[in-house]
Amino acid sequence: MNPNSELSPALQTLILRAEQALDRCLPPPAQSPAELHRAMRYAVLGGGKRLRPLLVYAAAHALGETGPQLDAAACAVELIHAYSLVHDDLPAMDDDALRRGRPTCHIAFGEAMAILAGDALQALAFEILADHNMQRAETGIAMLRALGRACGSEGMAGGQALDLAAVGRQLTLAELEHMHACKTGALIRASVQLGALIGGADADTLRTLDRYAHAVGLAFQVRDDILDVEGEAAVIGKTAGKDAAAAKPTFPSIIGLQASHARLRELTDEALEAIAALGDANALLTELAYYAANRRH
Known about the structure:
Blueprint: H1 9-25, H2 34-45, H3 51-62, H4 70-88, E1 98-99, E2 102-103, H5 105-109, H6 111-131, H7 137-151, H8 156-166, H9 173-183, H10 185-198, H11 203-230, H12 233-236, H13 242-245, H14 251-255, H15 257-274, H16 283-294
Antiparallel strand pairs: 1-2
Helix pairs in contact: 1-4, 2-6, 3-4, 3-10, 3-16, 4-6, 4-10, 7-10, 8-9, 10-11, 11-15, 11-16, 15-16
């Protein structure tokens, strides 16, 4: 199944733009060290929803910015996302063998090369962002800071640490939402922030868009947990039911499936309310909020 078939032609066009930019920014597969570069390309170019690049584009478009400078930020957030998936799938972490309908990077290339590929992707993300934003130094530094914060102990790394510590424990809803606000939500928020910064957002608009991104990030994870219960591996592209088998806390396991669907609707309403003042300019952001909450994969 095409993971992006649920999206409008406008977003499909932006996905193609992101795919082409990612192909350009990654090292050629034959360039030395070739095995590392092949692993990097495998991790990034093997499909995916491209939600984070789309959020970069959508946030900037809502502010009237559509220029080529968006591509660096779109690539940077997707490279960070790809690196996090490579490392999360490792045996020492989530120990997954299937990602995007294919063997995970460490299955295809070995654990050592997968670790190196993740490391190199993270470094490349910051290199690309720095290279393309130094003409506007203040904005460029703000973007680097936002992406760094999303990766660190208060973002993805911290969220993964909380996730590992939570296995077999019964978390409260607040604890679960905090964990996912770090692990999944931080990079989604950074994606929106990067697009907004390039679009010249003022402080009030940045806060508005951050409220939107926070709600979308949590909605994305609630939907992920629901799909782990209701989805099929052939459709969702990864191992279904794995969270329950590993005794990991999820929204359905804590509040039940029906309440999880209700929470998903609440979060979608919160996201849409946050961007209502943008008017017609919020069309792409609105579609992505619905997509995060209703996707089938």
